[in-house]
Design goal:
alpha/beta, seven-stranded mixed β-sheet, two-stranded antiparallel ribbon, 11 helices, 17% strand
């Protein structure tokens, strides 16, 4: 089948299913799954082998069933790093890119970082890539997620990341003293809110990486209990958790904290610094 015909058929199939942006989606799939250039897509005379036509049909069917586009493609770009993503890990969001970029911009003089609840390894890989002098310790409770993160580090030629299996800061217990900066995009959605999530999220992304407990603060509660003094901390949060996090942080010794907004104007980040008198 010629590329032009496959393109037309794929777009029509998505249109019939009521999926918006069908032309953009199909062109992206052509680039990613068929390795066609923009000019080859436009000209449309390239002959597509039967096996690749079947792969495209399968990808279109998965999208119609509601699977997220990033999982169908199997890859995602994150601050210049090429990531493998599958249903074992969350799809990295723009807000998490903001968090990683914030750390890269503000912590260029730091050497040892920790990415807690690393998932796909997005933050860890971005830090290791942009701050090549650094050593990044990445941990996760999910072994399946750690496997993906390790693949991503290897696939991007990053040798300055060490991986640890375990829950929260306890996974890094023996290395906490050397760590200067701790970053995390943890599970922070209230359990009662999970059922109201978009079906692409609730139906495909790992609940372990989403469910923050009844008040959304389970991870932070454990994190603050184990957090030693003297670290600089960057956390992704939900705006509705600001008050609860403030209450939790009030009992922390030796720390000052603040909240910052994302590009959309929502409080999305919590920063902790050693108190001035420490």
């Amino acid at each position: 089948m010629k590329a032009k015909e496959l393109l037309k058929n794929s777009i029509e199939k998505l249109d019939r299913a009521g999926i918006d942006g069908s032309r953009f989606i199909v062109r992206l799939l052509f680039r990613e799954l068929l390795s066609l250039s923009d000019s080859e897509i436009i000209i449309g005379t390239t002959e597509i082998p039967v096996r690749l036509c079947l792969s495209m049909d399968c990808a279109i069917d998965r999208l119609i069933d509601g699977e997220p586009l990033d999982y169908v493609i199997g890859r995602r770009n994150f601050l210049g790093v090429r990531l493998k993503v599958n249903s074992s890990v969350l799809i990295p969001r723009p807000e998490t890119e903001e968090l990683a970029q914030m750390v890269i911009d503000r912590e260029r003089g730091s050497t040892v970082f920790a990415d807690v609840a690393t998932g796909s390894g997005a933050i860890a890989c971005a830090l290791a890539s942009h701050l090549s002098h650094s050593h990044v310790l990445a941990s996760d409770l999910s072994l399946a997620a750690l496997e993906v993160a390790m693949e991503n580090a290897a696939g991007n030629g990053l040798n300055n990341i060490s991986f640890y299996h375990g829950n929260n800061l306890a996974a890094l217990e023996n290395s906490l003293e050397e760590i200067e900066v701790i970053i995390s995009n943890p599970p922070y959605i209230r359990t009662s809110m999970l059922k109201s999530l978009d079906r692409q999220v609730a139906g495909y992304e790992p609940i372990l990486a989403l469910d923050g407990g009844s008040d959304g603060l389970d991870f932070y509660r454990d994190f603050f209990e184990l957090l030693p003094e003297g670290k600089r901390v960057y956390l992704e949060i939900a705006e509705y958790s600001v008050e609860g996090l403030s209450d939790l942080a009030a009992s922390l010794k030796g720390y000052e904290y603040s909240f910052e907004k994302d590009f959309y104007g929502s409080y999305r980040f919590m920063l902790l610094r050693p108190a001035a008198d420490h």
